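Feature request disguised as a bug report, sorry. It would help if multi-protein outputs had a clear separator. Right now it looks like this:
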Amino acid sequence: MHPSLIKFFKAVYRILYITAFAFLYSVGVSLFLNPNNLAPGGLTGVSIMVNHVAGLPTGLVYFCINIPVLLLGFFKLGKKLFFKTLLAIAISTTFMDILESSDIGPLTTNPILAAVYGGMLVAIAIAFLFKAGTTTGGVDIIINLLKLRYPHIEVGKFFFMIDVIIVSLSAIVFKSIESALYAAITIFVSSFFIDKILYRTDQTLMMFIISEREADISSALLHNVDVGATLLSATGGYDGKKKKVIMCAMKKFKYPKAEKMIYDIDKDAFIIITSAKDILGKGFKTFSSQ
């Protein structure tokens, strides 16, 4: 296939990907949260409150208040993120206003169900857009900037700190403590799903393998699991024999395949697994100077 055609299909895929999750985001906001007076924090929460007070379309408000934040993202995060985020915002806000003006109406009037399912849909959309290198704008961009400065703090905690302020204001706007309490449920649900989705494949393990067939295992790890290995010299404490210990780091999702492969090669291999808080270097995270 011609390279230009491959590039075209990749661009189409990215647009469809962003469209799908931007739509999912708008469903969570327009059919669950907004109709039940739940301001889930961030600029989405601010837009819902403005919609309640002034009657302006939520999507239009969200788009307008994102302009200065988008400009900040352009200068700090680059034009690539800027245009991808602009696309996500344009699509999601358009769908928001279409859904709000349609006869579909809220999918539930139960505030607990709205908080849980609305928060879940919004979180799934945010997380998968984040994984694709884009955002839904607003606080997402601010959080992207914060992660550049504090890369070791989980994304959900950033959302939580900012959202608490917005939710507290919603109690005043909606004149209801219950609305704020239900919105708090949305925050917890969103934070949970965001971290689970974003960190499910980012969790890393350290593996130490003691085997008489260290060369075969090291080669298999490299070529079959795409995991590098380091051979450490060791001495057995019981028998005093010299041996090699294979040390390797890998993403958690690769472990089942690696384990099976190791025991297929040497059923007597001794394996030690430990969680790695963070790994910096090729194939993992890049170093960011503080």
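(second protein starts here, but nothing in the output says so)
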Amino acid sequence: MDIGMTLPGRGPLAEPESLGQLARRADELGFAYLAVPDHIVVPRTIDSRYPYSATGAFPGSASGSCLDQFSVLSFVAAMTRQARLVTSVTVIPHRGAVEQAKLVATIDVLSQGRMTLGVGAGWMREEFEALGVPSFDQRGRVTDEYLEVFKCLWTEEDPEFDGEFVQFRNISFLPKPVQDPHPPIWVGGESAPALRRTARYGDTWYPIGSNPHFPLDTIERFSARVARLGEIASEEGRDPASISLVYCATWANEGAVKLEGGGRHLLTGSAQDLQEDITALRNAGVVGLMLNFQGGHVSAVVGCHAAFRRRGAPGSLTISEIGSPGSTWDGRRITSWVGFLRRGRIV
């Protein structure tokens, strides 16, 4: 199983020197994915409900700071050689369709084919209004049409499009992305429209496990949602096996978190619990695990990494043994990663 991690878009760890060191070292240690979130502005008053917290409060509202996602990935591309560069996720209606297609193609060319586009329709009405983009209420239709535009621009020699929101013809769109037929599209979201979007346009389903409206916090719940995705894919005339699965989770070094009605929250608990969860996710078809290690400062992040090493790969049990053959993750690399952070080389 491939292991990835999110990179900060705000705060002390998003300073250029720290972000560069973090990206380089993660790449050296074999992280398969480096992911960056997306916000362009943070409204001072947010009434929209954030879908991934129990209270609905957006955790980034207090800061107001956010680096541009594509600029950060360009920066990270120059600092790394192996890790895939993932937008986690891009709020597709926030930028023009042709502009986004060009940004993705450019990073794919400059990174020599390492770009992955994670996509979502967005949740914050106030940000839509500030950006002057198509209406928040149209976001689903806009997202679907823009994905069609992307594929048209990336793959067709003489692209033209006549849609509800986008029209163009008689243009050149070069260079094309390095990856054939195009950079992978990971569709985020857990709702029925997100599953339908995955079946129609996605190479990978990329859910977050903490949505209280669509909880994927146990293997049983996750597997049931995967089964529903398979049904929708079949309805769309697509082989469900052609859709990959990457599971995104916050990891905060917690003991067993009990769920209402009993049971344990996925990826919490003892070392044995964590190992069994990773194995169960792999058996459910998950090929990648994206972890958001929690911590507002370096020492807190260090603690999470160290705890994940102890619980997820103790002793001779390594991530590569839990995951797929040939994985570059092993216990020595994780230990080296923790040591790197502890030595304070990221400040």
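Even a blank line would do. Unrelated, but nice: The mean pLDDT is 87.
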